[in-house]
User: Which sequence fits this backbone?
């Protein structure tokens, strides 16, 4: 989401290769991407959050293919991870143990990532009152950070979740993400 130009850069690369082929200019063999791989890469980068989309699809596929495992096993794991990250970030005693600011950033990204995965896998999503994720607490933790460092994460919650605009989402949560 923070680097939308990559799709344009890749398109430029493909056009340049195409022109080189038309003009019979030999390409440097090892540096050229074949058409099939280039098409797959284009589809990958066309997503707003390509890696998160891939993880979401893989998690959803895992849940649907393993009917013998209760879905709660997966959603409980995801909600626990979100809760652990939230508590580590909002509790001054735990947060003071982080010696590197990159650790805070990592915890924020993990928290948002597992919320999005939970929202895609759970039938009613992460924003419903019955969700095991404290969404108000998680959003508050995000909003307590410097705005420029978390705007991309807030946008990920706004635009890549499945259930944010459902009727079961409270108006308070929706307004927190406006």
Assistant:
């Amino acid at each position: 989401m923070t680097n939308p130009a990559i799709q344009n850069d890749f398109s430029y690369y493909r056009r340049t290769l195409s022109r080189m082929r038309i003009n019979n200019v030999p390409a440097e063999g090892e540096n050229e991407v074949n058409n099939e791989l280039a098409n797959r890469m284009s589809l990958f980068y066309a997503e707003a959050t390509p890696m998160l989309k891939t993880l979401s699809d893989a998690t959803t596929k895992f849940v649907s293919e393993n009917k013998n495992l209760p879905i709660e096993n997966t959603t409980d794991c995801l909600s626990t991870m979100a809760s652990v990250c939230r508590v580590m970030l909002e509790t001054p005693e735990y947060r003071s143990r982080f010696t590197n600011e990159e650790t805070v950033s990592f915890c924020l990204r993990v928290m948002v990532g597992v919320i999005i995965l939970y929202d895609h896998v759970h039938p009613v999503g992460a924003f419903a009152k019955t969700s095991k994720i404290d969404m108000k607490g998680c959003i508050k933790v995000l909003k307590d950070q410097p705005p420029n460092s978390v705007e991309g994460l807030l946008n990920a919650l706004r635009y890549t979740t499945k259930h944010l605009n459902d009727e079961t989402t409270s108006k308070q949560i929706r307004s927190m993400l406006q």
